[in-house]
């Protein structure tokens, strides 16, 4: 598997953060059916839901049947997606907040930091969110990304989001354009203002929200970052009116991506911002159905 945060290619079969991925799709681990004897021919221990074997009517290894549901069997829940990018060190970058290795953090110039206890830039410290947490398209219907979710034990948990084609606050052409598309996201952060069923997607230019370390890191004014909540798209809606065409909004957002990121050589951030225009179709708070997959 790749190390956390390394780039992936659409054809790769790799681990994406903590998510089990196979050939670009979330998968449930599967092994050959256990016939009930070990290699020595002795009777195995009493079957259980943690014996590492597919037995006792299980649908997978230690899942399904009498055990907890396998990932593929888990019920879908209704929710919605929002967007942000505040440049702050993520919640899951602090060692006490995760039972696994903490998420990578970076310095002001986006250099990797080895000290996971570096204070957050949003508290005046030197720890920033790494710029390669941008979303990435695998193909026209699948993308990978990161998100903030509601409080709780979320670090390293992965979710499949399927976009329904509806907007959270009414008809939205962008939301309609991504109907049926899927994202696999890893929870990287939490937010006191993030509700249950809400996934606040990490998207450059998505708005800084309650905290702003981006002005310091990128050397930009808060005005250049668009609306505090909603970022470039919301600023474009305010500029063009709320009844402009989707193509007009996309053109406006792309121009801001270029002005803020491209002009400063922030190539990775510009790529993530353009992803919002191209793959995400500048969807504004689209409704989703979701389930945990890892």
Query: Counting H and I runs of at least 4 residues, what is the number of helices?
Result: 5
**Helicity range:** 10-25%
Question: What are the low-pLDDT stretches, counting only 5+ consecutive residues below 50?
Answer: 1-44
- Total number of β-strand segments? 12
The averaged pLDDT comes out at: 84
Q: How far apart lie the N and C ends? A: 15 Å
- Strand order within the widest sheet? 4-11-8-10-9-12
Structural class: alpha+beta
What characterizes the major β-sheet? 6 strands, mixed, barrel
- Percent of residues in beta strands? 15-25%
The coarse overall form would be globular
Task: Return Rg in Å.
Answer: 21 Å
Q: In sequence order, what are the helices and strands, one letter per element?
A: EEEEEEEEEHEEHHHHE
Report on this model:
It is globular and about 65 Å long. β2 and β3 form a beta hairpin. α3 packs across α4 and α4 runs antiparallel to α5. The chain starts with 14 loop residues before the first strand and ends with a strand. It is built from 5 helices and 12 strands. Strands 4-11-8-10-9-12 form a 6-stranded mixed beta barrel. With 294 residues, the chain is an alpha+beta fold. The N terminus is likely disordered.
What's the helix and strand layout?
Elements: E1 15-16, E2 19-22, E3 25-26, E4 77-84, E5 105-106, E6 112-113, E7 136-137, E8 142-149, E9 158-167, H1 173-177, E10 182-190, E11 198-202, H2 214-218, H3 231-240, H4 246-260, H5 267-278, E12 286-292
Parallel strand pairs: 4-11, 8-10
Antiparallel strand pairs: 1-2, 2-3, 4-12, 5-6, 7-8, 8-11, 9-10, 9-12
